[in-house]
Amino acid sequence: MTVEVRPASEFADVRALLGPKSPHANVCWCLSYRIPSKLNRELRGPARGEYVAGLLRSGTPLGVIAHEDGEPVGWAAVAPRADTSFARNRKIPHVDDLPVWSLWCIRVRPGHRGKGLSHALIAGAVDYARAQGAPAVEAYPLDNGDARVDLTMAYPGLRKNFERAGFTHAADTTSVLAGRPRVLMRLDLR
Fold it and tell me: What is the mean pLDDT of residues 134-160?
């Protein structure tokens, strides 16, 4: 197995990982934390994918994609916090005024899980943010201890995976997902 993690640049790869099976379905496309709530509610069906394609064409940082033997198999959303709703989120605090990047979604395609791809995606997202000049990367994973988490709701990642990648607990949050608290984890890149 050869895995390469690189910045998202090809719409076909992003669509393979985030797009719906039916073109008219309303799936997230990893937009819910990226755009204002009103716009997120207004974008329906194919318009969601078209919006993501436009972001990609504009050079907006979207995230990174893991490729296994050339096939897109994993996704991690990472971008400047200022360009996300985390800049205004009341449940997830700011620990300082650094222009940090946020890493908020990790997704590995079925059939490719259990191979360590989420670890590769976290490392790839950090490398990408570092290359773009980020002073730090924040994540907002579930603090689930040893409890199992439904994979659908595990998209923000798990605290232990971020700890393994060198992130440290920076703050508690009042955000809860799937019945589990989310914590603010940070990796200083300075």
Answer: 92
Q: What is the pLDDT of residues 9-61, one digit of tens each?
A: 999 999 999 999 887 888 999 999 999 999 999 999 999 999 999 999 999 99
What region does 166 belong to: left with phi over 0, alpha with psi -120 to 50, or beta? left
CA–CA distances in Å: residue 166 to residues 8, 163, 186 = 23, 5, 8
Nearest to 129 by CA among 163, 78, 81: 78
Q: pLDDT per residue over 118-128, tens digit each? A: 999 999 999 99
pLDDT tens-digit readout, 86-105? 999 999 999 999 999 999 99
* Gap between the Cα atoms of 90 and 73, Å rounded: 33
- The DSSP string of 106-137 is EEE-TTSTTSSHHHHHHHHHHHHHHHTT-SEE
Nearest to 84 by CA among 131, 138, 48, 36: 36
Rounded to two decimals, the pTM is: 0.95
- Burial string for 41-51 (b: 16+ CB within 10 Å, else e) reads eebeeeebbeb
Q: How many CB atoms lie within 10 A of CB 172?
A: 13
43 near 51, Cβ under 8 Å? yes
